[in-house]
């Protein structure tokens, strides 16, 4: 049991550091070839923080482990919102610009509702659905880039956040890109393989490990970004990154996993005498925590401390429920 736990933690470390190296190398190369700053922020940096989820879910899909694939994507959304964003809101509530959130939020709820409809009607995701989500991802990236070109003020914080650092040579940037990608791939394998072993040893379903431990681990880049943004006084940037990451968890992470290996909604954990827990708890909670965070921001243009505290309480209750029920 000790060895799987240690390798599980090593996987976390490789995912986090690998993602950091991958983004640094990608951004450096993109700037070297004079790609627009806003395009870099809208694509490479945003995707970079979601790479751990993509690799973990894809690796799990390749190994036929639907519980990890499903749990990682849904669990990361719940974790991003009710833990990471909640910390930002609880510590630094204040006014926000609804325009910053409008595009990713609209895309998120559209994708999330379609995901829920499939889960409740068929209970199984077909390959064409995964391809459709990946197409939505491409459409979102195009629309997002066009929006920032039309309203460059929305990209100012993201550009400032990605600026700075010592100049590197092209060889160093390529090396960072390659090593980062390799570290992410290796970390994903460690996380999936040993997460499955830990789940078996503890007697809990793979989906529970995916919804909690794996989801928290792959969300650490967003947590680090949130804390850094908060320290630098960029609370809105932090929340914007969380919403964007949540969208990517459906259209990119789930889209890739479903395309690689279509799967059914895991039914290992049940509630109320045999009803699938995912349909009663996980999916409704995913929608609820996003609604709690986003709706007041759209209505009043500000976030209140009570929202952050409520979301943190929800995450604590969700985690306890997963392991004790």
Description:
The chain has 325 residues and is mostly helical. Helix content is 81%, strand content 4%. It has a single domain, classed as NCX, central ion-binding region (A middle domain of Talin 1, Up-down Bundle). The strands form 3 sheets. It has a two-stranded antiparallel ribbon. A hairpin with a 3-residue loop joins strand 4 and strand 5 (275-276). The protein is globular and about 60 Å long. The model is unreliable at 157-164 (pLDDT under 50).
Total DSSP helices:
13
Number of strands: 6
In CATH's first tier, which class applies? Mainly Alpha
Strand arrangement across the biggest beta sheet: 1-6
Share of residues in helices: over 70%
- By CATH, the topology is A middle domain of Talin 1
Mean pLDDT: 79
CATH superfamily: NCX, central ion-binding region
Category by helix and strand content:
mainly alpha
Largest sheet: 2 strands, antiparallel
Low-confidence stretches: 157-164
Hey, roughly how much beta strand do the residues contain? under 5%
CATH architecture name: Up-down Bundle
| Count of individual domains | 1
Spatial extent as radius of gyration: 19 Å
Distance between the termini: 23 Å
From the spread of the alpha carbons, the general shape counts as: globular
List SSEs in N-to-C order.
Answer: HHHHEHEHHHHHHEEEHEH
């Amino acid at each position: 049991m000790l060895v799987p736990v240690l390798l599980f933690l090593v996987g976390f470390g490789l995912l986090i550091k690998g993602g950091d190296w991958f983004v640094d190398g990608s951004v450096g190369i993109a700037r070297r070839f004079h790609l627009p700053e806003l395009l870099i922020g809208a694509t490479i940096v945003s995707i970079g923080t979601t790479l751990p989820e993509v690799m973990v879910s894809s690796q799990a899909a390749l190994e036929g482990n639907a519980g990890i694939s499903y749990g990682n994507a849904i669990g990361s959304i719940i974790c991003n919102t009710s833990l990471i964003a909640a910390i930002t809101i609880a510590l630094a509530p204040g006014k926000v610009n609804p325009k910053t959130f409008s595009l990713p939020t609209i895309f998120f709820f559209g994708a999330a509702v379609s995901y829920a409809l499939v889960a409740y009607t068929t209970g199984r995701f077909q390959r064409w659905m995964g391809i459709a989500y990946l197409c939505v991802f491409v459409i979102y990236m195009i629309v997002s880039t066009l929006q920032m070109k039309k309203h460059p003020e929305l990209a100012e914080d993201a550009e400032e956040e990605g600026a700075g650092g010592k100049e590197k040579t092209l060889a160093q940037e390529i090396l960072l890109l390659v090593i980062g990608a390799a570290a992410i791939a290796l970390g994903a394998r460690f996380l999936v393989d040993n997460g499955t072993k830990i789940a078996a040893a503890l007697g809990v379903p793979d989906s529970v490990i995916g919804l909690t431990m794996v989801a928290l681990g792959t969300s650490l880049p967003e947590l680090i970004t949130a804390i850094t943004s908060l320290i630098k006084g960029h609370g809105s940037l932090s929340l914007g990154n969380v919403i964007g990451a949540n969208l990517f968890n459906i259209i990119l992470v789930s889209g890739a996993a479903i395309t690689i290996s279509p799967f059914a909604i895991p039914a290992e954990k049940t509630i109320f005498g045999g009803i699938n827990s995912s349909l009663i708890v996980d999916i409704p909670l995913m929608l609820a925590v996003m609604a709690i965070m986003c709706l007041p921001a759209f209505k009043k243009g500000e976030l209140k401390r009570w929202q952050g505290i409520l979301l943190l309480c929800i995450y604590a209750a969700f985690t306890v429920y997963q392991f004790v029920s």
